[in-house]
What we know:
By secondary structure, this protein is an alpha/beta fold. The protein has two domains: 81 residues, Rossmann fold (3-Layer(aba) Sandwich); 56 residues, no CATH class. The longest helix has 19 residues. The chain is globular, with a radius of gyration of 17 Å. The protein starts with a strand and ends with a helix. The relative contact order is 0.15.
Amino acid sequence: MLKFITDGMLGKLTRWLRLLGYDVEYANDVDDKKLMAMAKKKKRILLTQDLELFQRATARGADTFLVEGRTEAERLACMAEKYGFLLEIDVNVSRCPKCNTEIRSVAKDAVVKKVQEATFKFYEEFWECPKCGQIYWQGAHWKRIVKTLEEAKKILDAKH
Length: 160
């Protein structure tokens, strides 16, 4: 399974990749030199939009990828093209967008006191992060998630 490390410019992409099930360490508070060392030591692919960092990391032997695109859909298409992954969310392998831990399905009754009453009433499926306790469900935001993934697929299809 691919493992990534992202720089501070790619916080949103980090969350997207975690939703898709990828192990992504977000290193927004370290300098470039330490970031390159972390990527090599932890055997993670360094993702960046910083051309200078990409060039230096590549020259120093780090597995690095220059992520292109202005929108999240463009960045996701770029990643899918390079690494051949599907632009589909499978909640059985998704990771917590906040802390990178694998989320797990939980019984509806287990979240009764952890979500708002309306959320509990209208949704049947919930997932929880065992590390940070964040609860997830396919709420109103889910349509935007699907739309972004569909846009990314169209971009990818147009390239082939």
